[in-house]
Amino acid sequence: MPECVFCSVSTGKTENHIVGGDDFSIAFLDKNPSTPGHVLVIPRRHVERLDEFSLEELKKYFGFISRVEKAVLEFSGEGSGYDIVNHYRPFIEESEMVKKHLHFHVIPRKFNDKIFMNERIHLSDNEMKGIADMISEKLGLIK
Ligand SMILES: [Zn+2]
């Protein structure tokens, strides 16, 4: 079985635009963003669903997501909003698009941006690096 893509992000085996992490979670830019600053937040440990966590672990994970939420809002600027979403779809085969490792999307939104989850934008590697650095700075954690 091929190694889980998100586990390899967590261990640093895969090149990604990491914005920050702590001992329990890690945040990085979605490679196919819906909007600039679209971040994925994963637990370092491979789980598929929230109910695999203890209450203490849920607290760590959502505490971290909340920090990312704040950093992403600051990055997006005045009047911005966000979508925070998680999908659990065990009926879909593992692929590059659908990961089974638990993850939450934090997607910056602007008024009338007409963005939907299935529409993605293309950003250059340099643009992605710049965005990751800006959010990382606001998050204030090690990368
Ligand atoms: Zn995994």
CATH architecture: 2-Layer Sandwich
Helical percent range? Answer: 25-40%
**How would the global form be characterised?**
globular
Question: What's the CATH first level?
Answer: Alpha Beta
CATH-derived topology: HIT family, subunit A
List ligands, each type once. Answer: zinc ion
Number of domains: 1
CATH superfamily: HIT-like
Q: How many strands?
A: 5
Low-pLDDT segments, ≥5 res: none
Structural class: alpha+beta
What does this entry look like structurally?
30% of the residues lie in helices and 17% in strands. It has a five-stranded antiparallel β-sheet with strand order 1-2-3-5-4. It has 143 residues and is α+β, with helices and mostly antiparallel strands. It contains three helices and five strands, in the order H-E-E-E-H-E-E-H. The longest helix is centred in the middle third of the chain and has 22 residues.
Identify the notable features of this structure and list them briefly.
143 residues, alpha+beta, HIT family, subunit A, five-stranded antiparallel beta sheet, 3 helices, 30% helix, 17% strand, globular, binds zinc ion
Secondary structure layout:
Elements: H1 5-10, E1 18-21, E2 25-29, E3 39-43, H2 55-76, E4 81-85, E5 104-109, H3 125-139
Antiparallel strand pairs: 1-2, 2-3, 3-5, 4-5
Helix pairs in contact: 2-3
The structure holds zinc ion (ZN).
